Amino acid sequence: MSLRLGDIAPNFQAKTSIGDIDFYAYLGNSWGILFSHPADYTPVCTTELGKTAFLQEEFAKRNVKVLALSVDSLEKHAGWINDINETQHVTVGFPIIADEDRTVANLYDMIHPNASETFTVRSLFIIGPDKKVKLFITYPASTGRNFNEILRVVDSLQLTANYSVATPANWEAGEDVIVVPAIKTEDAIVKFPKGVKVVKPYLRYTPQPNLD
Ligand code: BEZ
User: Fold this and answer.
1) Domain span at residue 101?
2) CATH code for the domain of 53
3) Are residues 49 and 107 in the same domain?
């Protein structure tokens, strides 16, 4: 059964490139990103994992722990990580799950048989500290993900989890945000002392509330 937004992300135990892990124990109270790629020693995946390693500090700043997954073996992962480090000029420090028996792939519905019977598609799940699925996106094997976009949606998810705001199209951290419709304008003016710009009664902007 496929997971939906708000569902509890299932726990699992897995072999990974940094040792055996229990998913929940690995996440602790952090946010998590679990993403699959079709196979080791493939070009697009090499760049994706390189980009993820390059952005490790950005993920850490946001209290996000990252895990990658493919259905290849630990031995394959080890050799491929050397290649990623060499070609992408990074050090892969996050775990890559060796899901040879497809336990995790099946749990997270990462195999889409009409795309490939054997390999995982590019699924990505963002999981909150409450272990609930906050976002998922799925790309085909031929399209590499934009990891700047993934950081951007983490920023939006973390902001909107804590304030009564939503983020408009193409929003980037630091830009004005939208006051959620559930808040009346007279209450919004009190709640958001930096100001509320009313464009329409249902379209109200305020500066990002968690910035000085
Ligand atoms: C890749 O990751 O490079 C890739 C994998 C499967 C099909 C096409 C590209």
Assistant:
1) 13-144
2) 3.40.30.10
3) yes
Q: Per-residue pLDDT averaged across 109-115, rounded?
A: 95
Would you call 45 a catalytic residue per the annotation?
yes
List of residues 6+ apart from 98 with CB closer than 8 A: 14, 15, 16, 17, 70, 72, 73, 74, 76, 77
Residue 8 lies in a domain: no
Residue 1 has pLDDT above 70, yes or no: no
Query: What is the atom index within ligand 1 of the atom nearest the CA of 119?
Result: 6
Read off the pLDDT of each residue in 153-158 and give the average, rounded to a whole number.
Answer: 98
pLDDT in tens, 120-154: 999 999 999 999 999 999 999 999 999 999 999 99
Active site residue: 3, 45, 90, 110, which one?
A: 45
